[in-house]
Structure formats: C-alpha cells, structure tokens
Amino acid sequence: IFVRDKRWILEADFVVAEVTNPSLGVGWEIAYAESIGKQVLCLYFKGAEKSLSAMVAGNPWLILCRYKTLQEVDTFLSEQFFLFRKGR
Known about the structure:
Layout: H1 2-11, E1 14-18, H2 24-35, E2 39-45, H3 54-57, E3 63-67, H4 70-85
Parallel strand pairs: 1-2, 2-3
C-alpha cells in the first residue's frame, strides 16, 4: 500500500484529501505531497463531530473546502480543476 500510494502521489497532478476524520495515513500523504510540490485540495464536512485538525486548518499551502452537501464538493472540485487547467 505504501509503495503504491506514494507512486500515485508522484504521478498525480494534485491530491484530493478527505480530512473530516483524522487519519495518520492521510496526514502523511498530505505532508508527502506538499514536500514534493503537489497542490493538495482538502475536503472537510462542516457537520462532523470532530473539529478540523489545526495542522490542516493553519496550513496556507492547502486549499480547503468546508462543505455541507455533495453539491458543494462538486462545485469546489469543478472550480479547482478549471483553475488547474488554466495554469493556476
């Protein structure tokens, strides 16, 4: 899993991470992606029982979407993909 996921990040144009539930694995993937210059889009459900990690919330490199509906996620990702294609 480690080798496969690391390769996926290396090959990716950017990373999308669901950060609603704290996860050491996702945290590592975000840090790795950032360390190699990959843009990271993070999704956090506003109605979650747990607060958003301060490490995610305070990281200016990450682009964060706090969402309530899947439509909000779809709109956010569509906008970010558009910006990426435009060379943001």
